[in-house]
Design a protein that fits this description.
The chain has five helices and no strands. The protein has 159 residues and is mostly helical. It has one domain: Four Helix Bundle (Hemerythrin (Met), subunit A) (Up-down Bundle), CATH 1.20.120.1490. It starts with 10 loop residues before the first helix and ends in a 5-residue tail after the last helix.
């Protein structure tokens, strides 16, 4: 009985289909990871809102603290909104580049770097705000805020 042996002339076509299939799967996976998940589309805003709600529910501020912290909060919220807008814009450009570019292309790499830069700036802004707030809290308030922030970073509690 003769075993089936693929013809050598069909192998390049087979490899082409395998490569195209893997490329499609990779592109789909990267696009899914880059896009916000349903119900999590504004994760940065939700986390900030969660922190804001937690602070007001768990840290009782004196009138003096309110007077100091209120302007800091407004300044943070304005900068945060600007950075979230940059992240959303850069994410849309990145998503589009997935459809039109190849991995490693200058446009794709620029789009990816723009998303990462804006996300990094938001993280930096958030920690800067954390340290600014911490300066005006009592030791007990600082400990609670530190614990909540630690747990949030380590994902040790639901937001």
């Amino acid at each position: 009985m003769k075993q089936f042996e693929p013809q050598l002339t069909n192998r390049p076509l087979l490899w082409l289909f395998v490569i195209v299939g893997l490329s499609a799967i990779t592109s789909f996976t990267v696009a899914k990871l880059a896009m916000p998940k349903p119900g999590n589309a504004h994760r940065n805003e939700d986390t900030s809102a969660s922190l804001h709600a937690w602070v007001h529910e768990n840290l009782t501020f004196t009138p003096e603290q309110e007077k100091i912290l209120h302007p800091l909060e407004h300044e943070f919220e304005a900068k945060e909104a600007e950075l979230n807008a940059q992240i959303h814009k850069a994410s849309r450009v990145l998503a589009h580049s997935l459809e039109t570019e190849t991995s490693g292309s200058p446009d794709f790499e620029t789009a990816l770097a723009d998303v990462q830069l804006a996300q990094g700036e938001l993280q930096r802004l958030t920690f800067q705000h954390f340290f600014e707030m911490k300066e005006h809290l009592t030791p007990q308030q600082r400990e609670k805020l530190l614990q909540w922030t630690h747990d949030s970073i380590a994902h040790d509690h639901p937001h």
